């Protein structure tokens, strides 16, 4: 993961003018993505999503969608998990999306895939 983060940051600096990294996420659904959150040299807050295979890069303005905290608040309010396992930002069916894995009240593995732009639930899998 340390190597993946370093490579993603290098790509984000090259293709998105990333200046300062604030967070790093791993998203692993149909494909694996590494996402770097941070600011550009112009102080614009961005997410840079890098595909593990092929290295395709997608740059999102943080203000144009839901934040990590927005998504976590939604999960806590609507699903009342016993524990959040992971949150990551990647691409789901060609759409930027957050994926949250968590243990529900019965300690069963569950997932929510939530569209970055508007918070719409794209996929919900519970009680695995």
Automatic annotation (TrEMBL):
Question: Where do the Cell wall elongation regulator TseB-like domain residues begin and end?
Answer: 7-50
Q: What name is this protein filed under?
A: Cell wall elongation regulator TseB-like domain-containing protein
């Amino acid at each position: 993961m340390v190597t993946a983060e370093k490579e993603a940051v290098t790509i984000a600096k090259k293709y998105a003018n990333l200046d300062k990294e604030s967070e790093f996420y791993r998203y692993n659904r149909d494909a694996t993505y590494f996402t770097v959150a941070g600011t550009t040299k112009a102080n614009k807050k961005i997410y840079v999503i890098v595909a593990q295979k092929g290295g395709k890069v997608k740059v999102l303005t943080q203000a144009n969608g839901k934040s990590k905290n927005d998504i976590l608040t939604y999960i806590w309010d609507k699903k009342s998990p016993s524990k959040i396992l992971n949150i990551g930002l990647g691409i789901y069916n060609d759409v930027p999306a957050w994926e949250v894995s968590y243990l529900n009240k019965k300690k069963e593995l569950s997932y929510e895939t939530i569209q970055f732009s508007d918070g719409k639930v794209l996929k919900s899998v519970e009680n695995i």
